């Protein structure tokens, strides 16, 4: 059985927005996205420039790295714009009782 971890309340992430989240017990930061009524969770660090993606722009379901402008598909983690080439880690998400949970381990 998959263990789900509480990531945040749904109200903390604006529609078509992203929020950086720190979770006790995890070394890495996570990015939570709210797109078209759905929630997604990825690692927050760009795989190319090691900068927080939560500071980037969202356009057409992609998050653009604020450092070099590379991009990732938020739903799949696929690198979609150079210089990013390595896929961004994504996590299975479940929303219940106005909270976002993810399978982080």
Give an account of the 3D structure:
There is one protein chain. The chain has no helices and eleven strands. It has 105 residues and is an all-beta fold. The protein has a single domain, classed as Rieske Iron-sulfur Protein. The strands form three sheets. A four-stranded antiparallel beta sheet has the order 2-3-4-9, with no helix packed on it. A four-stranded antiparallel beta sheet has the order 5-6-7-8, with no helix packed on it.
Secondary-structure blueprint:
Layout lengths: L4 E5 L7 E5 L8 E6 L2 E6 L13 E3 L2 E3 L6 E3 L5 E3 L8 E2 L1 E4 L2 E4 L3
Antiparallel strand pairs: 1-11, 2-3, 3-4, 4-9, 5-6, 6-7, 7-8, 10-11
Question: Unreliable stretches, pLDDT < 50, 5 or more residues?
Answer: none
Q: How are strands sequenced across the largest beta sheet? A: 2-3-4-9
CA-based gyration radius: 13 Å
Q: Please, how many helices? A: 0
The CATH C-level name is Mainly Beta
Pattern of helices and strands? EEEEEEEEEEE
What value does the average pLDDT take?
A: 93
Q: Please name the CATH topology.
A: Rieske Iron-sulfur Protein
Provide the CATH superfamily.
Answer: Rieske [2Fe-2S] iron-sulphur domain
What is the number of strand segments? 11
Biggest β-sheet, characterized? 4 strands, antiparallel
Output the structural class. Answer: mainly beta
How many domain modules? Answer: 1
Tell me what portion of residues adopts beta-strand conformation: 35-45%
CATH architectural category: 3-layer Sandwich
Tell me roughly what share of residues is in helical segments. Answer: under 10%
Distance between the ends: 12 Å
What is the 3D form? globular
